[in-house]
Write a structure and sequence with these properties.
Low-confidence stretches: none
Helix content: 25-40%
Number of domains: 1
Radius of gyration: 18 Å
Order of helices and strands: EEEHEEHEHHHHEHEHEE
CATH architecture: 3-Layer(aba) Sandwich
Number of helices: 8
Structural class: alpha/beta
Largest sheet: 6 strands, mixed
CATH topology: Rossmann fold
Length: 240
C-alpha cells in the first residue's frame, strides 16, 4: 500500500488559543490523485491543509502535535524534522487560496518571483519556465501579449489561474487548494476544475470544497472533517 501513498499523517492534533480544532487524525493520501476535503465551516479544513506546509507556524498561540510525512524519491520524510527546511517544503508543497492573491507587479514577474527567490538567474530559463506554466494553467494565450501588465488587472478567474501557474513554477509534488473556485463564476470555475484534473498526472492534490457537485466531478477520494477528525469516504457522496 505505501508504494502508492504520497502523504502519511499520524496522530495529528491542532489547537488555536488552547481550543482544539483537530484531534488525533491519522490518514494516508494516494499519489497522483485528487482528495476533496469537505465539512461544515469552521471545522478546521484550512488548518488541516496548512499542517502540510507549516504555514500555521506564523500564527500566534497555535500548537500542533503529530507527524506529517511526504514521499520524496521513494522515501518518506518528516516535514517537521529540523533538518527539513520550510523553503524546501514550500517548493514541494504548493498552496492556492480561496481569494486570488496576485502580487502588485506584472504578470511575468508574478510567475517568475518564486524562481528568483530560489536563486535562479538565467533569463532564458526563467522565460521558458514562465511560458511553460502559463500554458499548463490555460492562461498563456490570454496573456502572452501583455506579460508586462499589472497582474491585478486580470479577471478573477484569470488571477486564480495565475496563482496556480505561480505555484507550479517550482515543480511541486503536492498542491493544496483551499476552496479555489468559491469566488469565481460558473464558467471560470469549470476551467479551474479541468485544470485540477489535468494536474493530477504530475501532482497529488488536496482540495477543500463546499460544492458537492464539484466534489463529485473531480475527486478520486472524499475526506469529511467533523467532530475534530477526518473520515475517508470511498463511496459516492450523496448530493441530493
Amino acid at each position: 500500500m505505501d508504494n502508492m501513498v504520497k502523504i502519511k499523517i499520524s496522530n495529528l492534533s491542532f489547537s488555536y488559543h488552547k481550543h482544539r480544532v483537530l484531534y488525533d487524525i491519522s490518514v494516508k493520501f494516494a499519489e497522483n490523485s485528487i482528495t476533496a476535503i469537505i465539512g461544515p465551516s469552521g471545522t478546521g479544513k484550512s488548518t488541516f491543509l496548512m499542517s502540510m506546509n507549516r504555514l500555521w507556524e506564523n500564527i500566534p498561540d497555535t500548537k500542533m502535535e503529530g507527524n506529517v510525512e511526504i514521499k520524496i524519491d521513494g522515501a518518506f520524510h518528516d516535514v517537521y524534522d529540523r533538518s527539513f527546511s520550510t523553503t524546501r517544503l514550500r517548493r514541494l508543497v504548493g498552496m492556492v487560496f480561496q481569494i486570488p492573491n496576485p502580487l502588485p507587479m506584472s504578470i511575468y514577474k508574478n510567475i517568475a518571483f518564486p524562481l528568483k527567490l530560489a536563486g535562479v538567474k538565467d533569463t532564458k530559463t526563467i522565460e521558458h519556465r514562465v511560458e511553460q506554466v502559463l500554458k499548463r494553467a490555460y492562461l498563456w494565450e490570454e496573456v502572452k501579449d501583455r506579460l508586462k501588465a499589472d497582474a491585478r488587472t486580470l479577471s478573477g478567474g484569470q488571477q486564480q489561474r495565475l496563482c496556480i501557474a505561480r505555484s507550479l513554477i517550482t515543480e511541486p509534488e503536492i498542491l493544496l487548494f483551499d476552496e479555489p473556485t468559491s469566488s469565481l463564476d460558473a464558467k471560470a470555475a469549470e476551467v479551474i476544475e479541468q485544470l485540477l484534473l489535468d494536474l493530477k498526472d504530475r501532482c497529488t492534490l488536496l482540495v477543500v470544497s463546499h460544492y458537492l457537485h464539484q466534489v463529485k466531478r473531480i475527486a478520486d477520494t472524499v475526506a469529511e472533517l467533523h467532530d475534530n477528525n477526518l473520515f475517508i469516504n470511498h463511496t459516492s457522496i450523496d448530493i441530493g
